[in-house]
């Protein structure tokens, strides 16, 4: 304790951060890196596996329902007109004049990151053939100590099919750039903030895909082979949307399958507060597919303030495409985000480059690329219009009409223990053989568990409101006027959507107008993030891990495999005023 009070941050990082791996999984991307790094590796959270089947939907996600009903279409058009009146632009079916509109300069929009790729680069589909002279694993992973039971990437990842040797699986951005004509099936193990388990995507396949992706990142990006992971500990920064069952499953993957020596679990919202050196804040996490709100007081997450909204940045991108098609400004090309993930990359880049919130007409001239089957990428110069409408869908979610992913039965999430909060001291009956099997100590939904009492944890329901209403409702639920005033002045926007130009003043204005008149609150302020909004939660997890290295919240591998976690064992995440104070001191140093 005395050492932590006197040690400087750089000293703590060098001494404790070199063997801590911070893992922050999300629906669209996963952020992974050593705690001593300034920024994590951000990798698309998906995997494409070779398939011998011949369906035409190789790259379409499982159980995806993207059909918009007539009622939803009418609500979307009504929401557009409401936004148009606020932004002082023509309504949806009005004629849009060509003159007098504001235009931004032309830019290249094709799914590339302009910071990493030269402007004269030519798009190429991912090479799915395995080269004879190389494999996808690093030399360090070929050590003799690697167990023979490790993943198939350690066994060699080529698949001989006559003339071709296909790679068994492809992870990350390469998986998104596989041609639809290739025999691969793209899978996303997390969707809308939950494990993507459905009738067509079995639970065991989801676990295997998570394991494969994370193991690939550890080997390819961090150069940590399985034989050396007993020297590393993992910090899991989990989304607020995760239920207890999901937390336990990913924890089991980290300890049992990836073979880390120990692990600890932190909440994403709480980690974000620590990442910005805040002890009290309202954290608004706007990701690719889910937006969540939670309030933090003195370094402690308040579970009753949690709100989950079923939309994010990808829905804004989809709305952008719908808007342009309605105005007939989109080129006459087949843009399909479901069968061609490269189109989603393009739309996300377009949204990030040109969409922002501002009154008046906002147009831009851009070069849009199309990727037809078996053809080189084609360029289309076009003028896009109403670019300030899609991000306003955050406040009017009827405009977005999110895709529907059928969730697993709610009984799948029933659990007798809370991983993130103090549980009541209740003795739950446990079978003597419950520690046996593939998932020791887990409630895995088998009939043998049906008669067991269930500990009712906080609900994970989704809110059917806009962003301003969700923030207001979350803060007002804290009850105390002094805390409410403080939280309204310490709103923190994180996630990729937080980078949208003009969003901060829009949030401040709309939250202020959403506060009931009987509340004695007249000030709303959104604080600028000290850390990049896309990985502030990852950074906070790294800080918590460095400062909390010796505490009882850490779960050791063999303890988890043999015993799981028992009520009252003390081995679960606990908020700590001491850790909070140390983290605040650290980030402000």
UniProtKB/TrEMBL annotation:
Q: Which domain of life is it from?
A: Eukaryota
Compositional bias per record (Basic and acidic residues), positions renumbered to this chain? 140-156
List the SMART domains: ACTIN
| Provenance organism | Eucalyptus grandis (Flooded gum)
Name this protein carries in UniProt: Actin-related protein 9
* InterPro entries to which the protein is assigned, alphabetical: Actin (IPR004000), ATPase_NBD (IPR043129)
For the region Disordered, give the residue spans.
134-156
Q: Which family does it belong to?
A: Belongs to the actin family. ARP8 subfamily.
Q: Which Gene Ontology BP annotations are present?
A: double-strand break repair; regulation of DNA-templated transcription
Q: SUPFAM superfamilies, alphabetically?
A: Actin-like ATPase domain (SSF53067)
- One GO cellular component term noted in the UniProt record for this chain: Ino80 complex
